[in-house]
Amino acid sequence: MFIVLLTIHVLAAVIGVGPAFMFPLVTGSAQNRQQLVHAYRLLLKMDKYMKIGAVLLLLSGAGMMVLGNYDHSEIWLNGSVILFLVFAVIAFVILPKKIKAIAEYVSNSSGDDIPTQYPAM
Questions:
Q1: How far apart are the first and last CA of the chain?
Q2: How far apart, in whole angstroms, are the C-alpha atoms of residue 118 and residue 63?
Q3: Distance between CA 50 and CA 13 in Å, rounded?
């Protein structure tokens, strides 16, 4: 059972957290406003996978802690829990609001060029 949880944990990290590293690449490659609108629509879809990945990471990690009889005073374990909590705040609170705000701004802009205020957002 531990191996199954470990496999789920690793896959959730790659599939769930991986898209977060793609955000700058996806938005930075846009050459005009339409491509930027498409990029933010894509980010909104990718955001769902981040949330699913975060939940799977939490559940599989907790399951491995129980099955593995880990000592809760282990530094690496506490550090990973803290990193997970930081990731969760970013994935569930900060990024969705920011992505939606920027997507709305870019969608409501006129013309073909990327809005001039976009880089400051």
A1: 45
A2: 43
A3: 9
Q: Could you read off the pLDDT tens digit of each residue along the chain, which spans 121 residues? A: 999 999 999 999 888 777 777 788 888 888 888 888 888 888 888 888 888 888 898 899 989 988 987 777 789 888 988 988 888 888 788 888 888 888 888 888 888 888 877 776 6
Q: At what angle do helices 95-108 and 33-68 cross, to 10 degrees?
A: 170
SS3 116: coil
Q: Which residue has tokens 């491509």? A: 35
Residue 110 tokens read as 């006129």
Closest CA to 108 of 24, 47, 40, 20: 40
Q: Which two tokens stand for residue 12?
A: 């959730």
- CA 65 – CA 8 distance, rounded (Å): 14
Q: Return the H-helix or E-strand segment holding 36.
A: helix 33-68
Give the whole-angstrom CA distance, residue 56 versus residue 26.
25
